[in-house]
């Protein structure tokens, strides 16, 4: 304590901050309590963030990292199965560098490296220590309540816990665990067409005579100005079945740019169905293939294939 004998306030004693700094106090208390907790506990559970990867990733042409990989929690494991005792402020040398750990946890197998537990009150772990490859658990301590939370909970990455140089193995997972979607077009035995979204693991469920599939991002704006994917795919399907009929292949078919629906140009003159459908084309006596438009759409699809993965499946005879 030091005397405060000023002229404005009543004389009093105060703490000498040079000797009684709260941050230093908190760091010391955290070291003591975490050391005792580590050395007396039989089970200290740790959960890592691992990468789950679709098991079909290597052979799937539609593989996309942002859809076919995700971070998941590993199974928890007990640190005390691998590290038996922690020592405060202990030195460890590696690659010519000498590192001081707040708590150096000795490995059960002497051939393995120790685990460092670092306490960050003001200053995070130095970069050279992080780059050493030594496994490090860094606890962010702002109050003694934070120490209580450490002792009560599983250790896992959070705003108050940082994990360095842990390298959990990637986990192969079922395609059902991911969000990969495809847009599939099908020509059925009836010669009718269908287009819809499917999960990537449903790609091999073949139901038609001709099937075209492309990645689906919820929009597929690439074909918006050409009648959409359905119109493009039906044009491509004529390469494999020249007997196909659909209003979108007819020279009298146009698209209403306001709502995207197909309209028959002959509906006023001959009383055809204004909003054309595939059933009309099968029976319509006015149907004529628009060869130029079909070839244009095939070219658009071929150009798309140069930059994007596609799946084209024709039922074997």
Descriptive account of the structure:
It is elongated, with a radius of gyration of 34 Å. The strands form 6 sheets. It has a 5-stranded mixed β-sheet. A 4-stranded antiparallel β-sheet has the order 15-14-16-19, with helices on one face. Strands 6-3-11 form a 3-stranded mixed β-sheet, with no helix packed on it. Helix 1 runs parallel beside helix 4 (144-152) and helix 5 crosses helix 8 (291-307). With 317 residues, it is an alpha+beta fold. It is built from 8 helices and 19 strands.
Brief synopsis:
The protein is an alpha+beta fold and about 325 residues long.
What order do the helices and strands come in, and which of them pair?
Elements: E1 2-4, E2 12-14, H1 22-40, E3 45-47, E4 49-54, H2 65-68, E5 69-73, E6 77-78, E7 83-94, E8 97-107, E9 115-120, H3 127-130, E10 136-140, H4 144-152, E11 155-156, E12 161-164, E13 171-173, E14 181-187, E15 193-199, E16 210-215, H5 228-237, E17 253-255, E18 262-264, H6 267-270, H7 278-283, H8 291-307, E19 311-314
Parallel strand pairs: 3-11, 4-13, 9-10
Antiparallel strand pairs: 1-2, 3-6, 4-5, 7-8, 8-9, 10-12, 14-15, 14-16, 16-19, 17-18
Helix pairs in contact: 1-4, 5-8
